[in-house]
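SECTION: protein entry
WANTED: fold as tokens:
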Amino acid sequence: MLTVIKPGPQLTIQDLGRFGQRHLGVSQCGALDSDALRVANLLVGNDEQTAALEITLGMAKLRFERPACFALSGADMSANLDGRRIETGWCYQAKAGQTLTFASSSLNLRCYMAVSGGFALEPVLGSRSTDCMAGFGGLDGEALQEGQQLAFATSDFRWLNWGAKLPRRQGPIHYIAEPRGFGLSTHLKLAFSETSWQVSAQSNRMGLRLQAEPNSTDLDDPLSHGLSIKSTAVAPGSIQLPPSGEPIVLLNDCQTTGGYPLLGQVIAADLPRLGQLRGGHCVSFMAVTLAQARQLNQRHQSELNRLRLAMRYRREHK
């Protein structure tokens, strides 16, 4: 059992998401940094899909009511277990009564905490992820509150003193340019990748709102337009362009259709990086071909596969 003493700004239960329901208007949800969720689960012997805690901005406090093996991955929020420094990407044991506290990170936005055995929750539409907008999944369909308790299943996983790093995540965010014109000029589309962007503080789990960095362009509102389109399908990673000229990159909790013109789709390998961007962060985008996108995605999967194999070998030869 895990007791929430202090939830911080947003503490939710997330797995890899809810798939196969978008035609019914159901959002994907799930961990915004799926790489970090996978690593945390692998470190404690869980299936990668197992639900974990997504800690946004930090400032949370949790108490273990019984012994458990746990791991953190993602943002380093200077976590402490009864005063002992807890590193991200490492496996730890907690005793009954010990308290885990989180500060915050100036670099990244979200930290993931997995417990061996996973949290004992019933799936809704195939996932335990919390959909706060629709009010289902997780625990009561809401962000966790002070005093709530989470049971976790028993596990035969034996603690191992091991750690793991996330795949390499550097450079611009790669995207495939939208083939449909939507009336947008070629010059306007090129301006998107040539502009340096800053993440707005108004961003959330539905999407990243972008603002042009000061002095990044000689034009005022270089992407502004007066176009509207019929609603079209969108998904996490879709790059929308409202009339204001300030793009929105949709994230896991986004709607299933939208009425803004689209600039493109972020490739799968770079989607987890978006979940760590916080207000004020600077980000750039680079258009790639389908062949280049496949190569980048394959490289990302190869890094995850090497990690899986290394951890499997360590478990089998402990």
